[in-house]
Predict the structure.
Amino acid sequence: KFRILVDFTDLKVNGAVMAARKDWIATHQRELRDVIKNLFLGARKANADPAWAVEQLKPEFPDENPVFLEAAIKEYASRKVWAPSGAMTKPDDLKEAIAFLKEAGMLDKGAPDDPNFYVDFKALDAVLAEIGVQ
């Protein structure tokens, strides 16, 4: 038996962040969309079919008890840790993160407040238009 002490599901800006140089993004749109799409499809499949997710994890964690893996996956799915449409799809959510980073001294106080300065949502929007939002 295990207990999840914290899972960060209530955070508007969650832990999975993809970063890439702008020049790479400009020349690799298909690859970028494929990665995003498959992350979402994997999350959706794991949430809908925990047994499938356990089978995917077994090779990655060969020494782990499959019963533990299944319990962890079911718990994560129930808490919606694996966001089926991205943990953050709204620029407004980023405004809070920018303000926090400035307040914490991790971002210069004079840095832009506009989320579009930091994040390009075009690939995310294209994938969600293709597979839908859940």
